[in-house]
Every structure is written in C-alpha cells, then in structure tokens.
Amino acid sequence: MENQRTLLYFALLFLVYLLWAQWQNDYAPRPEVAVAPEKSEQIGSSEMDSDVPPPINAVAPSAEIENRPAAASSSRVITIVTDVLEVEISTRGGDVRRATLRKYAVNADKQDEKVDLLTEDRTNFHVAQSGLVSANKETAPTHNAVYTAEQDSYRLAEGINEIKVPLYWTGKDGTRVTKVYTFRRNDYTINVDHAIAAGEKGWSGSQYMQLYRTEPVDENASMFIHTYTGGVIYNDEIKYEKIDFGDMQEKNLNRELENGWLAMIQHYFLIAWITDSNEKHLYFSRYNSDSGRYILGTRSEAKRLQAGEQSSFNSRLVVGPKLQDRLAKEQPGLELTVDYGILTIIAKPLFWLLNQYHNLFGNWGWAIIFLTITVKALFYKLSAMSYKSMAKMRKVAPRMKQMKEQFGDDRQAMSKAMMEMYKREKINPMGGCLPILVQIPVFISLYWVLLESVEMRQAPFMLWLTNLSARDPYFILPLLMGISMFVQQKLNPAPVDPVQQKIFQFMPIGFTVMFAFFPSGLVLYWVVNNLLSIAQQWVITRRIENEK
Q: pTM value?
C-alpha cells in the first residue's frame, strides 16, 4: 500500500511539473513583439547599433557603431551551398542573413522544406552579424559597411573539401579589410576572419560578433515538450549561464570573460559565436522595445597597428544541430547546449549507452528497447525488493481488510495491529518505496535524453512508427501502455482506502491520455519497461504466494 502511494505521489508530481512548464511557456511575462519592417535591407542597421557598448580598452569612450544604413540597392546577396548548409551573406556588413540545414526537414512528411536557423522572416527574424569598430569610424567596417565580392554564388563541388568566400573593404585612409568566410565539407562550423592592413595613419579598433533576433514563435510547443529557447554564455569560470529573453529585457548584460562563447539555442539546434582568442572579451546584450528585437554579442580588446602593419581577428560561427559527438570537440562546454538540466550527470551516460546500441543496431527504436532492458537489469535487485514487498502485502491484504472492519475508525489500534502483523510476517512496509524513489531520477533523465537528442529527431522505428520524436499517429503505443499499467495494478495489493482505490483505477486512463501526446520514443520506453516489470513482478508474486 505504501509503495502504491509513493507511485501515486510520483505520478502527480510529474504531472504538476509538466503543467508548470507549460504555464511558464504560455503565461510567463513576455515582450510585445513589434511587426518588423517589410524591407529586409533596411533592418538591423540603425535600430540597435548605438546600443553596442564600447570595446574593452577602447581607444575612446565614444567609440560606437555608426548609425548610417546603406542603401538597399548598393548591396548584394552571396549564396553558398555545401553538403550540409545553404547560406546567404549580404555584402552589407557581411551579415549571415539566411542559413538552411540541408539535411534537416521541418516536418517528417515534407522533406523538401528544410530548417532555417537564420532568417529574415518577419516572425522569427534572426541574423548573425560581425564587424570591426574603431574610434575613427571611417577606418573600420561595421555591419553597416558595404563590401565588394568576387562572385555571387559558391558551391562545394565533389572532391573539394573547403570554400573560402572573401569580402573586401577599403577605408578613406587606405585601411584595407578582408573578411573571409570559410566553409568545410560535412561541417556546421564557419570560420570568420577579419584581416586588416593599416592605412597611412595606423589603425586601432576591435572586433565584435552578435546574434540579432526577435523572440521566436514556436508553433509546435506543447504541455509535454517544453525546452529552453534563448541565449547562453560560457567560459571556464562561470561555466554555463542562461540569458533568456526576459533577462535581456530587464537588464543589459555587460561582463568581461576570457576564452568563452555565446549562443542562441532552441530545441535540437543552436547558433553560436566562438572567440578564437584567450584575451578578454566583453559580453553584452541589448533589447529594443520599439522593434521587439534582442542582441546578444561579444567584443574583443582593441588592437593597435602602425601604418602598413597587418593583423587579424579570428572567430567561428556554429550554425547547426546539437550533435553531441561534435560539440565537445568543437569547443569546451558547447555540449552543454544539449540541456539535460540538473540530472546531466545521469543523462550523459544514458545517452552514451543509447548511442552505442544505435551503432550496433542502426535503429533508434531498437536502441531504446535495449537501453530499457539494460536499465531494468541494473535495477533488477532493487525492483525485486519492491515486488517482493508488494507480493507480501498482497498476500496479507485479506487480513488487512478484516482489521479495517474490526477496528473501524480506531486508527491507532489498527496501526498497532498492522505493525504486529508486519513483524510476524517479516514484512517491511517501506520496502517498495526506496527502489521506486531511486529509479525516479533515472526515468526523468531518460525523458530528457529522448527529448533533447537531435539524433532521434524524425527517426523511424518500424511499421507505423515512422517518427520517434512525434506522437504515435494511431495511439497504439499509448493504449498498450495503459493496458500494461492496468495489468501491473492487478499484481499490486489493492489499497484499503476507497478513495485511493478510485484514484488508482483512473490512473491508467489518465496516463494513456497524457502519453498520447508524448513522443513515441518515450512511450516505447515506458511500454517496454512496463512489460519487463510485469514479467518480473508476476514471477516474484507467484513465488511468494506459493510459500507456506
């Protein structure tokens, strides 16, 4: 009876958590999103530029990016196509105005429509900007400046592993800047380098990189799939810190960090700027209430060059899926964008094991099944303790019913009689609780592993299950889960309390409805886990009931 009550509390706690997450998503205070201007070339230049803070060791406290938008007709769009990316770069500032993931479809049923992580779409506006800033505004190209380009399109041909896209700018004093984007085969990381040749009076300035966007509208958000969307910053000292849209509204971020990175993350995907320098950078955020747009960026220390001297600033732009085997290799801490929450220490080994099974079977469905079997085997002894306690409680259930009739409302006398019976029968009424409590963190960790892993996004299993990251289209798995839960209840001792009896009778129905909207990969785990639990519990129950 006690372990049934524990299970009930766990179920209610889990439901409360899901409801709270959805409430936060639906009703937490949010900014009013203004409608963006229709002309894409007229946005992003004058709205936010003056809000960017001066660089560390700035040559003058008034050094700001100039509010001088270029005419739309003076810029061009350069298209770059690799095996994994399709990117559009504007010659105005060299901004990355569109980035499409060629291997990731928006919907499993519409494979021709690919995911856009950077876009000038009015609803989900998001661009990546970078440039140089100096006290002498005419010697450094900001994202207002117009570059020249050698050609309008590039394509990664067979046998070629790298594309370089150079953009050129010359200042009035003779300063020459070459901004080079480097794309590589099967790589979502883009190198962005600013090479500077100082003019006749020398040069002093710094580099900045920023992500400029509106708060996205997630049409697929639901009560049961709620993941973090917003900014993050990282370095070895602060580790992983979220800067969400509400934080950017309330207060401007201004923090000096060494050897770090910043990113905007969403479910399955990220856009990140990585500084290729161990020097201090100023990390900043800004919010414009008029346009409803946010900036999260970083700015380097100033460099000083003599006339004719050359130097460069180097950075990397990551635009792609949160592939866990690549992120840690790309930059320390970047793997934390796969956000497992406070149970990361458990979730990471679970994902590693899940990935090993996928490498073995080549199918994420079978990987989930064998991961479930492995987890069940690891907790076999604990589960056996729980089921043995349940079986003994089931065996003495008729006597407990007699006690209730005998003592009526005298709870003290009934509790004393029950304790004496537990002592005679060598029953530990709490024996079933600890195993359940121990497994709760594992279940929640696995929930986040299956929810956060882009590797499982739109992954097929077999028969009607063509997308493990979406709900079962025919609700077969949720029905099987509800049936298996009902069978499990029949193996457990019935609660003495009539109210608890009614609640437990409703639980399989309630969980079936709830799980109907879960990703089918999660429901598959629960069904397999229930079937294994039923088999183990049935064997132990028969053994206990056959004892004299």
A: 0.78
